[in-house]
Inverse folding.
């Protein structure tokens, strides 16, 4: 016997808080599941909700990640701060449930979700389903949470929703900045002068001092080195950074991609469209305010309704907006198009310079994304901009993303830094700081690149630090050099080969850092550390697992992976 469909008046708001959009994807999954059961579902960015707006929604699901060691993701910061404030309004009449995403190797696992769940309960809101905390493998715990939510929603007394006062009006933001030349690239939302200078809502202005290839001409992948001044006003704003922090930058979209969308969609450059609280020309919106790499699936449904065709993804590449519009062969409605796109997101880069060594600037590293899809050259949004359209002297907007979970220990503590490619960025900052402070603790770097001759980044600096003792040990792995054996290509192989020394560092209180790829490198390094604990610590599997977990929880195994 099938369950009776709820009334379409049973409204559910699903909010997502994220840095990488995993939480948004899960929120969309939940939306589809609840819509099939007849609920009227709206999915939205958590940044758009004030506490009053949250209470007025009555029935809310929150899917949020945690940044670093317990912080809210950037878009969840405003609501998180408002709710944690002692003067936060009561939430009587709100029914809610929270799904928190995290990584159990961090001591404050899924802390942002725990914060929202605890505080909403303290403020009088009613849990319709228990909070679920999801580790890196989210599928099973998320499915369990969704099942509990479905049961909780079905049991709610929908005819007893308590009215809440309307949200207070929000002051209109400043007008969107006008891009006047190639030397000004103010992408992203307009700054909010009421927010702290140098924050996400009121970013600082930076000027490009250097932008050049850090890899050699024969490298199979280009890496850019950028140097930015500390930013107009940033020295007096929220920009006291530490080694290990990141810089978030808003990059404009590629004008050639925007023009291809406008042409294929038979759209006028100056068609007025609404983005947030602003009305601006369509081309400007597509260049500076909206993500073009993805789109709401309902846009595909609209194309089919118009009699158009849909581009199909391949095993190698996904369909991006330009592919969808070129393949549809229909005239697009500007408002429909804009509604299907989410706001342009900032891109985060680990700062590759130490604040005591580089007081007037910050250095960044970025690996350029370049490939071909559907017959067109394709570039990463930010890295294509850096490689092709970001000259010295250009100005851009950015803000500091602090990483309190990824900090240097006391100068006398030994450290082991592990990371291939651009994962060296924060470790360069660490070594600059340790050299400046003449730290007595050992600094060991295990670093991987493709070829010694072409893409060993900062080779001269590394040799200099090894010569003066700042770098007590340097192990290099080269995955594509001729003659390298299959079991000596990657950083995890170097760790296993030096397993006794790694275990010794752990035993004497050293700190291990990992930076780089979250999909392959970080799990392989984690596995290697586990194997080292078994072999050199004479532990069984469960004891080794507990040891590595305790290292993470005590702040001695720290990861900055993406």
């Amino acid at each position: 016997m099938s369950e009776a469909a709820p009334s379409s008046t049973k409204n559910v708001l699903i909010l997502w808080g994220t840095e990488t959009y995993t939480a948004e994807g899960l929120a969309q999954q939940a939306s589809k599941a609840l819509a099939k059961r007849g609920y009227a579902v709206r999915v939205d960015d958590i940044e758009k909700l004030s506490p009053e707006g949250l209470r007025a929604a009555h029935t809310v699901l929150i899917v949020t990640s945690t940044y670093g060691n317990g912080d809210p993701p950037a878009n969840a910061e405003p609501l998180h701060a408002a709710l944690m404030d002692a003067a936060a309004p009561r939430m009587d009449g709100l029914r809610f449930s929270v799904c928190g995403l995290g990584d159990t190797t961090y001591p404050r696992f899924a802390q942002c979700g725990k914060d929202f769940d605890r505080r909403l309960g303290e403020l009088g809101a009613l849990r319709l389903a228990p909070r679920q905390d999801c580790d890196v493998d989210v599928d099973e715990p998320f499915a369990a949470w969704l099942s509990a939510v479905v049961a909780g929603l079905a049991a709610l007394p929908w005819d007893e929703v308590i009215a809440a006062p309307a949200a207070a009006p929000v002051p209109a933001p400043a007008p969107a900045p006008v891009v006047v030349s190639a030397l000004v690239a103010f992408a992203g939302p307009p700054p909010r002068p009421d927010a702290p200078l140098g924050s996400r809502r009121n970013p600082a202005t930076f000027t490009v001092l250097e932008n050049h290839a850090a890899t050699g001409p024969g490298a199979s992948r280009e890496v850019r080195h950028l140097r930015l001044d500390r930013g107009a006003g940033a020295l007096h704003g929220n920009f006291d950074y530490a080694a290990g922090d990141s810089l978030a930058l808003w990059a404009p979209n590629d004008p050639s991609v925007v023009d291809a969308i406008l042409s294929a969609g038979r759209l006028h450059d100056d068609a007025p469209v609404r983005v947030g609280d602003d009305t601006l020309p369509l081309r400007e919106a597509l260049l500076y305010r909206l993500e073009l790499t993805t789109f709401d699936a309902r846009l595909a449904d609209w194309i089919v309704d118009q009699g158009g065709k849909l581009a199909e993804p391949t095993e190698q590449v996904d369909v991006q907006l330009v592919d969808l519009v070129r393949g549809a062969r229909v005239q697009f409605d500007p408002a429909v198009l804009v509604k299907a796109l989410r706001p342009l997101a900032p891109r985060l880069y680990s700062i590759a310079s130490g604040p005591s060594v580089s007081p007037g600037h910050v250095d960044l590293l970025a690996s350029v994304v370049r490939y071909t899809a559907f017959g067109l050259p394709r570039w990463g949004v930010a890295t294509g901009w850096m490689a092709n359209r970001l000259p010295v002297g250009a100005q851009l907007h950015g803000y500091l993303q602090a990483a309190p979970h990824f900090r240097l220990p006391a100068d006398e503590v030994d450290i082991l830094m592990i990371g291939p490619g651009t994962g060296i960025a924060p470790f360069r900052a660490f070594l600059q700081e340790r050299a400046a402070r003449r730290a007595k603790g050992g600094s060991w770097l295990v670093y991987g690149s493709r070829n010694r001759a072409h893409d060993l980044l900062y080779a001269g600096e590394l040799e200099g630090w090894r010569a003066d003792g700042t770098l007590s040990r340097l192990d290099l792995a080269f995955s594509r050099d001729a003659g390298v054996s299959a079991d000596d290509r990657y950083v995890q192989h170097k760790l296993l080969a030096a397993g006794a020394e790694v275990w010794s560092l752990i035993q004497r209180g050293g700190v291990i850092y990992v930076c780089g790829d979250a999909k392959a490198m970080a799990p392989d390094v984690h596995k290697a550390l586990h194997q080292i604990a078994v072999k050199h610590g004479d532990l069984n599997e469960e004891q080794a697992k507990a040891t590595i977990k305790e290292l993470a929880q005590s702040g001695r195994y720290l990861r900055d992976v993406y």
